[in-house]
Amino acid sequence: MFSTLANIFRIPELRKKIFFTLFLLVIYRLGFHLPLPGIDQTGMADAIKRQGSSGGFGQLAAAFSLFTGGDLQQSTIFGLGIMPYISASIIFQLLATVWPALEKLQREGESGRKKIQEYTRYATVGLCLIQGVFWIKYMVDQHYVYPDFRDSAAFWMMGIMALTTGTIFLMWLGEQIDEYGIGNGISLIIMAGIVARMPNAVLDVINRADFQGGASASGATLGAAEILFLIVAFVGVVAGTILITQAQRRIPIQQAKHTRGRRVLGGQRQYLPLRVNHGGVMPIIFASSLLIFPSIIFSYLASGFGMTRVGGFFKFLENAFHHDSYIYVVCYVGMVYFFAYFWTAVQFQPKEMANNLRDYGSFIPGLRPGKRTADYLERVMTRITYVGASFLALIAIIPTVVATKMNIPYSISSFLGGTGLLIVVSVALDLVQRIEANLVMRNYKGFLGNQ
User: Fold this and answer.
1) Cα 341 to Cα 276: distance, rounded to the nearest angstrom
2) Residue ranges of the domains in the chain?
3) Residues 6 or more apart in contact with residue 143 via CB below 8 angstroms
4) For 142-186, how does the pLDDT look when each residue is reduced to its tens digit (9 = 90+)?
5) Whole-prediction pTM value?
6) Element at 50 (helix H, strand E)
7) Cβ(7)–Cβ(439) below 8 Å
8) How wide is the angle at C-alpha 95 spanned by C-alphas 89 and 99, nearest 5°?
């Protein structure tokens, strides 16, 4: 392993990509700690922390920070994180399946992709402005803003523009990593935000450890059983994530024989690998990003209508979409399944794959090239996607179940098991595979040896 690490830095191009990626992630972490002016950061952090213990907006802000790379609890210039860009990407990917103009652009290849990317950036700005208004309004209503700034138009404009600019800058950082660095830029930004919080979660476990009296009824302390469970869950999720990420359904492919003069070429038997978890971690990111909206919107409407019947109804909906509620968990699981199939439908093209096999003189034994092959590939992909989506849904609800049933704080369960760890492991595996490809391409032995 040490020789492999040394080989990475012997390749000038790969070394530059890694250092460039690390440099941009350092810039992201520095900007992460730049607060918005005019806000009582200490009072706001204390209030949200108190709310977090009772399942209020603080827990929502913590979940938001986990999945988006931002931080609403400190209200920094990167407070909105990368979520508006992810939401805009979801919108345009959904529209591309029903809007013929976008579908035509998507089929144009690189030029069409760049045009859709441009539209996504414009939509990101609009979403940032809308979310910025809601967030500034919430901070003003909760008296997190100093009195001299609450009614100032300059403060509102400055706050909204700062949040919008922060998200656009994060989007630009992600695109620069994609272009000149190594790895998926957006995923690496989210991963960096999660990894940066993990040491605090570990310290929280150590501070709450109580091997004498065990865990209290309120979950203030963690006994030996809870800590052992967290360790086992950590190892299990890591092992399961690696297993399901690397899992493949190999379909045998027979290459047709070709006669060239007196020589007979081809006739070899190969395999077409289909990933079980084709969507990776993106279905969970999409689902968790969209489910942040209902609680925020219903909370705003409930406060607007006050103690009326309508206000009580919106308050009920707000509580229903807290991350520890049954309705939220059901919606979460359903959206994970939906986005798993949606992402597979967008990325996996069985007709194009069947045509490519036919053009290269290959076929699946027992199936005619063309439509029969495409139908078979689609049927197999539908079945294995169900397995991958089931695993993602199970991982997604682990933190909520652990926090609710075992009285373990959500801030701990979300980091040491479940979705946060799934994102970190999946992105790390993708990064290792990209580095592996660069090493093998230059005749260096990779992390996986000669396998």
Assistant:
1) 11
2) 32-181
3) none
4) 777 888 887 788 888 988 999 899 899 999 999 899 888 888 888
5) 0.74
6) helix 41-53
7) yes
8) 150
